[in-house]
Automatic annotation (TrEMBL):
One of its GO terms (biological process) is malate metabolic process. PROSITE patterns: MDH. Homodimer. NAD(+) binds at G29, A30, N31, G32, G33, I34, G35, D55, N116, I139, S140, N141, M249. The lineage of its organism: Eukaryota, Fungi, Dikarya, Ascomycota, Saccharomycotina. Belongs to the LDH/MDH superfamily. MDH type 1 family. Pfam families: Ldh_1_C, Ldh_1_N. Substrate binds at R103, R109, N141, R175. Keywords: NAD, Oxidoreductase, Tricarboxylic acid cycle. InterPro entries: L-lactate/malate_DH (IPR001557), Lactate/malate_DH_C (IPR022383), Lactate/malate_DH_N (IPR001236), Lactate_DH/Glyco_Ohase_4_C (IPR015955), Malate_DH_AS (IPR001252), Malate_DH_type1 (IPR010097), NAD(P)-bd_dom_sf (IPR036291). This is Malate dehydrogenase. GO terms for cellular component: mitochondrion. GO terms for molecular function: L-malate dehydrogenase (NAD+) activity.
Amino acid sequence: MFSARRQLINSFRQFSTSSINNYKVSVLGANGGIGQPLSLLLKLNHKVTDLALYDLRGAPGVAADVSHIPTNSTVKGYTPDNDGLATALKGSDVVIIPAGVPRKPGMTRDDLFNTNASIVASLALAVAENSPNAAILIISNPVNSTVPIVAEVLKSKGVYNPKKLFGVTTLDVIRASRFISEVANTDPTKEQVTVVGGHSGITIVPLISKTLHKDIAKDVKDALINRIQFGGDEVVKAKDGAGSATLSMATAGARMANSVLSGLSGEKDIIEPTFIDNPLYKSEGVEFFSSPVTLGPDGVHEIHTLGTIAGFEEEMIAAAKETLKKNIQKGVDFTGQFL
Ligand code: NAD
Ligand code: LMR
């Protein structure tokens, strides 16, 4: 079984100087609302010795800025000029992709599909060509569809490794810690909620039955679950047309990147929920599903089952699976036309 305590420890590990590692990490979309703070947090991560920042524009400026921070890594910024994408990607151990447009109020993540699908597919082609062995972390929405798009692109190039493709759902996990602590009046840094399924609305399934707060009143629990599922909308509404979550997302992305790097470097018991090629519900046609995963030197080391969960959570998962099937198929169909 996975340990919630272990997941919690992961979140504090990223700035530790105790392990010596040398990894190249590239960020595609590094000049964006997420890309900039994520680049900052990666510059502070001692496992990262080579940081490559790519964007259509502006990445050299971000790179120059964070390069003045006195940590032991080199930072370079790239644009499409002079084959910048290929150079940024070559030799990368981890590629993080937050490139793409964010939501405005009234939009769903799926409304981003038409714009972001081709951005992500084009970047995946470049990854397939230049860094086919890298672990790839997808942040661009709609994650439920962009991850299958990347898988299909990599398959078409014969370089798909299901152990190294991750949809980043860590923002749901950190939100759940914060929101449950507000309800239970506890320390959020000590709260850990396993969140499974996907990354949009009802596909986000927090397993409250696995926390210490499983007996909270039903109306409180229902409101908590709804807030975790629709936390993204809270930020989109508050930003009022200026985009979606960026700072909390950068925190979540940096945590997930650090956990993947920790796994690559051979650290044990590194567990994160993440949206991956998952056998759990494949027989029902759900190819990708977020489960707690132990990370290792090859990427995904072990995918954990959900164990015993409450009846209402089974129902939520059943609903999530139906939406996920459609989201995944949409990504697969798009890639068939794109390639
Ligand atoms: P943003 O508009 O601030 O930044 C996006 C960046 O991507 C821009 O700098 C843009 O120039 C760049 N870009 C666009 N096309 C590109 C390409 N082909 N190559 C390289 N760079 C390219 O948006 P943001 O707020 O940073 O959000 C980015 C994406 O992340 C959105 O799709 C958003 O929905 C998603 N997101 C996901 C999560 C999650 O939990 N997975 C959370 C928040 C946001
Ligand atoms: C989030 O959960 O905050 C992101 O997926 C961005 C969004 O569109 O809500």
